[in-house]
Amino acid sequence: KLPSLALQPVITAELIQGRAHLKCSYSPPEPPVQYRVLWSRLSNPGKREQVHHESTPRAFSLVEMDGANLRLGDTVFCTVTAFRRGTPEQHSLPEDSKGFYAGIKFLPESLEIAEDGKEHVLTVLSTVPFACPGQDDSCKITLQLSTEDLGKNSQAPGPPDIALSACQVDLLQEPCSGSGCAAATVTVTAVTDFAQDGNRVSRISAEPVVPRDVLWRAYTPRDVKVTVRDLPTGNCYSFTDPHIITFDGWRYDNYKIGTFLLCRSKSRPFEVHVRQWDCGGHRSAAACNCGIAAQ
Length: 295
What we know:
There is one protein chain. The protein is elongated. 24% of the residues are buried. Strands 3, 4, 6, 7, 8 and 9 form a 6-stranded antiparallel sheet that branches. A 5-stranded mixed sheet has the order 11-18-17-13-15, with no helix packed on it. Strands 10-12-16-14 form a 4-stranded antiparallel sheet, with no helix packed on it. Helix content is 0%, strand content 51%. The protein has strands at residues 10-16, 19-25, 34-44, 47-56, 60-64, 75-84, 87-91, 95-96, 100-101, 104-107, 110-114, 120-126, 140-149, 162-164, 168-172, 182-190, 200-208, 224-229, 237-239, 243-245, 251-253, 258-264, 271-278, 287-294. InterPro entries: Dev_Signal_Modulators, Ig-like_dom, Ig_VWDE, VWF_type-D. Residues 3-94 form the Ig-like domain.
């Protein structure tokens, strides 16, 4: 056997003559040798299915994403073995590439957020290029985004516990690099619902909108699961004639008649006004809440 050669195979994607291809590149040792390249895809967890193999003198191997042997949504590997020309029995140990997910993925692949109003950036990334015949100047794929509450334990699902900054995103075609072939971002925020409903799980789904490229028509990207951590909500009160308890527990009375600013947020456009009218008897003056307005 030849010694370990540190071929370090890496899979990238590129568009060749309007078709998406995967490229397995490796480091050529000295002196030059031949290479046996085996392409495989993950068919079941932990199990690989061979899709293509070849022997080549080149320091790379190409395989087309044809929608049959290799489809969007596949996790693909290439395994490279080096051997000397004329003596194939003298070969190096086979070296595997890392798994390459061909398609659209979200980064991070899952989120854990809290009901604190903070925005969390979610990147939508295409790892493979897409063809737009006759539209080279503005080649893009539009994704329709949706959210769904998956409930908590045995509870029935309710309204989504998360909100997105956009209902759809456009992936604009760029030259493929190590980070991918097209990317866009969307922000995710937990809905502050004032309900003590425990930690809930929601999911974000993406659906390509009628792409022209045939390869993409039967493809649905993986969902993203978002766990929303329930936080206790502050409460303030104004009741009877009226006694007021603030968010931090201070208590006082306001017997006056008029319209008052009851609450205003310092961080967002939210405030509550209250109107108090005379509701006292002959012996003592008192005011009662009779109207409320919230912005």
